[in-house]
Please model this.
Amino acid sequence: MRSLALVLVLTACTTESPPPPGDEVTSIVDHHEIPVSFNNQLDVLFVIDSSPAMAPAQTRLIAEYRKMIDVLSTSIGGLPDVHIGVTTMDARDQGRLRRGAFLADATRFAWRHERNYTGPLVDAFLPLADVGASGSAVTEPFDAMMRALSPAVNPGFVRDQAYLAVVVLTAGDDQGATPVAEVARALKSLKLDPSKIMVSGAFGACARDGLTATAAPRLAALLEQFPNRNTQVSLCDDDLSPLVALTGQLPRSLGQPCIESRLAQPRECGAWLVDPETDEQVLLPECSSPDAGRCWSLRPDDAACGTGGMGLHFQPVVFPFSAKVMFECVVATD
Model:
């Protein structure tokens, strides 16, 4: 699997000029500005089979949906800025999202949490994903997928800059007539950069606990159109969470710059976060212990900074929002 692209602006480091002779100024400040910019937006569409063939799998699928949400929520850096929607592949639903809405959850600057639901994410997701098994026996996931991703059908769900993940679960195959290559082209056309699209599915011939799934060559052919950005499992597998594991590849690491100046002792350093959009500032304290959160630490880092070099490290090592980290230390003058 290929990691998606990350834009990380390198550390800008400046040291103020030595002070003029006299008693007024007695120190030099080493200043680092560490802008971090990344795309943390992820839109996830679940296209779920509601045909009678899915009836034997209903109870097990509820448990599997819990696992999927857990994987989304506990990936490196935590839950990204997500939109999560569910539609069925029943032609009568026309690709409309279940309950006419999608779940939105994001962590903004300084870890402010914004969401459009209450309670745990999994509790909000399960009623959407529990589609039942009373839908049409004719399954058309390709048509449902493209309709659901249309702004005319589900306004606001798909964002221009967001990564897109489509997850298909079915006991059958697509029974539509549109050539697979044409469907793939239409899906890729939704993004200027098609590498921002991931497709996964639980399908293919299998039998378990009364569930009988058939071969799905059209779905398999669609996934092949997204090399390194697809995952296929069997609907009969014990664990379906790999369907969303690919979304954890959104890289969001914060840089770890090196401090090259000889610092004054005892050390006098400070750091704060700056919102690149509003210039709001929030203090980022020094870590008081190895397991402290939302803080910084200076420690020897020979691997990254050379022998005897000091590395500036952050906790968490991944920020769920874009920010500038301003870091200053008093430099030794003797």
Observations:
- The first helix runs from residue 58 to 74.
- The longest strand covers residues 28-36.
- Residues 41-249 form a domain with the Rossmann fold fold (CATH 3.40.50.410).
